[in-house]
């Protein structure tokens, strides 16, 4: 991760090895996850925050409610020969001579469950192949020529994640890297872990319960994600001058996405307090049998 002096235009790296967006001018894209879905869309279960409106609940109440909703969904048997499919709206700040603007792309991703099969990224209508890693080698095209390089498979689904909150909290801190404060790193790791991914209901619930134990996490009132959905968010302020928000549906408590929002001005980048720096709204998550297949 970048030090605070580098400014928000130089954002953190993802942790989990998930497929990242290949387009960026000086775009930096954060991420998120919506209600976890299987090959058929799952219906989110409704819980309540002790009869309190979601926007007035504490961060702990919001996160524990989201964990309960995750546990209420049926699990899915995931085979190594399948793909995790994620449809999302992926947005980030573009900084140029004309000033700053938030650019949005429609993004579909098919990630090989075991990392050995060729995956696919579709941004708007442009397809980008993601070569699988087989027998320690992967082949990709560069300049019209094929090039084979050494590799290690990157799994699109992690079956062995902790399923209780204490072990998940340890996992988040142990698998964070960078020079930022430890709590910020752990919160970012949680966001990276659940963005553009399928987690088992128990693992997803453990993430939410673990985040509730990270110091400094607070509630943000009514927020709107990139898909126009209103929600309540839990957030952590970062040393770079922005806060990362995990956004949840107010009624179903399903996880809708992640936003990065400025909490102070950054004149060098042309950004102001309250500006949305990046947003990742996940629309569908499914497990499918082949790259390019939609549920």
User: In what range is the share of β-strand residues?
Assistant: 25-35%
Shape: globular
Name the average pLDDT.
81
Number of domain units? 1
Helical run tally: 4
Main sheet record: 9 strands, antiparallel
Terminal Cα span: 36 Å
* Number of DSSP strand runs: 11
Instruction: Calculate Rg over CA atoms.
Output: 18 Å
Low-confidence stretches: 1-55
The H/E string reads HEEEEEEHHHEEEEE
- Amount of helix: 10-25%
Structure report:
This is CU044_5270 family protein. With 295 residues, this protein is of the alpha+beta class. It has one domain (26-288). The chain is 16% helix and 32% strand. Strands 4-3-2-1-11-10-9-8-7 form a 9-stranded antiparallel β-sheet, covered by helices on one side. A two-stranded antiparallel sheet has the order 5-6. Helix 1 packs antiparallel against helix 4, helix 2 packs across helix 3 (182-194) and helix 3 runs antiparallel to helix 4 (201-211). The longest helix is centred in the N-terminal third of the chain and has 13 residues, at 59-71. It is globular. Mean pLDDT is 81; it is low at 1-55.
How would the blueprint of this fold be written?
Layout: H1 59-71, E1 83-96, E2 99-112, E3 119-123, E4 126-130, E5 137-142, E6 145-150, H2 165-174, H3 182-194, H4 201-211, E7 218-224, E8 230-237, E9 242-249, E10 255-262, E11 276-288
Helix pairs in contact: 1-4, 2-3, 2-4, 3-4
């Amino acid at each position: 991760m970048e030090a605070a002096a580098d400014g928000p235009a130089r954002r953190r790296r993802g942790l989990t090895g998930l497929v990242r967006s290949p387009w960026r001018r000086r775009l930096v894209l954060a991420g998120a996850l919506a209600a976890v879905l299987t090959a058929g869309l799952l219906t989110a279960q409704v819980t309540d925050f002790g009869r309190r409106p979601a926007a007035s609940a504490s961060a702990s109440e919001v996160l524990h409610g989201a964990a309960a909703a995750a546990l209420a969904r049926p699990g899915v048997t995931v085979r190594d020969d399948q793909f995790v499919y994620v449809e999302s709206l992926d947005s980030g700040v573009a900084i140029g001579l004309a000033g700053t603007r938030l650019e949005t792309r429609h993004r579909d991703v098919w990630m090989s469950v075991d990392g050995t099969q060729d995956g696919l990224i579709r941004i708007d209508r442009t397809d980008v192949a993601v070569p699988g890693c087989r027998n320690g080698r992967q082949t990709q095209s560069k300049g019209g020529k094929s090039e084979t390089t050494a590799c290690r498979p990157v799994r699109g689904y992690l079956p062995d994640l902790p399923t209780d909150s204490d072990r998940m909290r340890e996992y988040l801190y142990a698998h964070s890297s960078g020079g930022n404060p430890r709590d910020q790193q752990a919160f970012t790791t949680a966001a990276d872990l659940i963005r553009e991914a399928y987690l088992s209901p128990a693992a997803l619930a453990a993430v939410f319960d673990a985040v509730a134990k990270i110091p400094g996490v607070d509630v943000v009132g009514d927020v709107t994600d990139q898909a126009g959905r209103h929600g309540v968010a839990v957030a952590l302020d970062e040393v770079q001058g922005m806060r990362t928000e995990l956004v949840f549906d107010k009624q179903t408590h399903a996880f809708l996405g992640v936003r990065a929002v400025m909490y102070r001005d950054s004149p060098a980048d042309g950004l102001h307090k309250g500006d949305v720096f990046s947003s990742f709204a996940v629309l569908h998550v499914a497990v499918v049998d082949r790259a390019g297949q939609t549920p």
